Amino acid sequence: MRNILIIGAGRSASSLIKYLLTKSDSEKLHLTIADLSLELAMKKTNNHPNATPIQLDTVNVEQRQKEIQKSDIVISMLPAHLHVEIAQDCIAFRKNMVTASYISPKMQELDAQAKENGLIFMNEIGLDPGIDHMSAMKVIDEIRAKGGKMIQFESFCGGLVAPESDTNLWNYKFSWNPRNVVLAGQGGVSKFIQEGKYKYIPYNKLFRRTEFLEVEGYGRFEGYANRDSLKYRSIYGLDSILTMYRGTLRRVGYSKAWDMLVQLGMTDDSYTMENSENMTYRDFTNSFLAYHPTDSVELKLRHYLKIDQDDVIWDKFMELDLFDASKKVSIKNATPAQILEKILAEKWALQPEDKDMIVMYHKFGYELNGKECQIDSTMVCLGDDQTYTAMAKTVGLPVAIATLQILNGNIKTPGVQIPIKKEVYLPILKELESFGVVFNEKEVPYMGYNPNNVAG
Fold first, then answer.
1. Any alpha helices (H) in 175-246, and if so which ranges?
2. Global pTM?
3. 132: part of which helix (H) or strand (E)?
4. Which residue from 30, 182, 265, 350 lies 20 to 30 Å from 62 (Cα-Cα)?
5. What value does the mean pLDDT take over residues 45-50?
6. Are strands 73-76 and 210-215 parallel, antiparallel or unpaired?
């Protein structure tokens, strides 16, 4: 039996573990599922004979190294900042490693050592990053193979709620870490390149600069810019591209309402609020508004944000219980962002029978034989339920498939890497199709350049 050590059994690991256990007899696999919570690890193994749940605290160096040493390959589903110590152990014991996280500078520093030891450290092999890289490189490589030159690349991804489970006015429910949603776009300016001009959007303007997209069968969406759209320009071989933009998808209307929470200050994570544990939701909302001896909190907020009473944004605010004087924050020394996260987690939780939805949309603009062309590629994936979500499927399955490909010697190139080589993306994308992760590519008229907007 070949032993796969999976460190971290959180929500994204459910489909990953299910896939590998399904293959465990035919592929002769044994899974060690390690988590700080033994109960969670046991739940994910579901008494399968080819799986062993264990409790593991990664700060316990001796136990961590013992388990890594026993394994044939290591999957780390831990938060990104915890990967490096695992990776260093993998170098010491000559084990390949797979993660879904972005490559950190410290992880990148291990590239030479990984290559010296013939080790594959596959990173960014989840959804976004992951499936976005693979599906994009497949089309970019095909365009280049026929002599085309890339001039535009736009890529959008969103974790949303499926239409049949869409039961709130924000058209949104959490299928991944709520904190990441609350803090989205913070910590720097969003930057991209458009028609050869560099563009920058500060956080306080981010949610008012959106692009609209149509996905056949699923209607309209809006996209706002990711923090750094230029990060993969060189990696994808697109140094001379005129337009490169990466964004996050939401349903139309979400960003305008979210922007008002930003303007109020509710998404701020830089300071704590006094007496937050005794604060009601109404107190929380009122704390961002000017004092007035007679005006209600509702009236003050409408005046401050210039919201009409018949505006759907007002209904969205009411739906979040932001004016409820009976509900308490009950968190000591909380930041505004932490309080908002608690409020939203109550309202936007996926219910047991709810289904989530992943939407990905790529636009490829290119020149071929003197003509400007465009390919649009879309993917919509629906979850099964609260456990086997589309998010868990699209994050976990590429990790699992890549792990098996490495174990079986089909992925050979050593080093710290992301899935942009054909030996990696072709078999993984092919197998993902059997799980409903299918990209529909179509040629459309090129829309990237507007001759009436030459100023840029």
1. 178-182
2. 0.91
3. helix 131-145
4. 30
5. 92
6. unpaired
